[in-house]
Amino acid sequence: MSLIGIEKLVFGVDDLDLCKKFWRDFGLTEVEDSTEHAIFACASNAKVEVRDTNDPVLPPPVIDAPGVREIVWAADSLKSVADIANELSKDRDVQVDDDGTVHAIGPEGLGIGFQKTKRVPLEDAGTKYNAPWKEERFDQPAKFYECATPQHLAHAVFYINDLEGTPKFYQERLGFKLTDAYTDRGCFLRCDAAVDHHNLFLIYMPPNKGFHHTAFEVRDIHEVFGGGLRMNELGWKTHLGPGRHNVTSAYYWYFRNPSGGAAEYGF
Predict the structure, then answer these.
(1) For residue range 127-156, what is the model confidence (pLDDT) as tens digits?
(2) How is the beta sheet containing 238-244 ordered, strand by strand?
(3) Among 19, 99, 111, 212, who pairs with 70 as Cys (CB 3.0-4.6 Å)?
């Protein structure tokens, strides 16, 4: 089996209209909209879906608060999806949609899904930089971003209560790789065929449980600031940043997300 990253995050939310506005303002493209739900996509075609918290389509909530109810993982083939379904059916109920998407409940009560990916390749569209001994940009200004257009849905972060069993499930049952770890605090995991530093960060902080944040990569640091400044102008509150992570060296700007937790611009 080969997983390449996140295909879709499915949120259960309290205020559907407010959450739709947030993701539009954040820079995602609306691809479906109805009174029951909405789906938004970034440039790679990875998606966010929002549904009312009481929608029976959703898996049961982990906690009584808005947040991700299911994370759908992108597989490289239908065979990989079928292999995962066979593996998970050994000890849990597995449901299969008409299109072959597989659904189950993972550790900590989080809904997990698996789908042959519909993501598309991205082009290198970032700004060229000039620095001492490094000249890349001639006779052209650096791009100024009036807003952000998220390119890639990179990772999601959850609080967990089982620092041994939960990461072990993703590694032994689904093939995830350990990228980095904080001793006795959490671990960074990536899909076996992904190029990201991590696709899943599991934070051990009992009794906390549930969704913390999700991160979208943009084209360069200028877009981190362009998107962040635009979100501020639109009235959305900063959760953290702008700043730079110690572990990945990535630049970030997080915003409080009415869908639950926070949403991050990263580069």
Answers:
(1) 787 888 888 888 888 788 999 999 999 999
(2) 177-182, 186-190, 200-204, 152-160, 210-217, 262-266, 251-256, 238-244
(3) 111
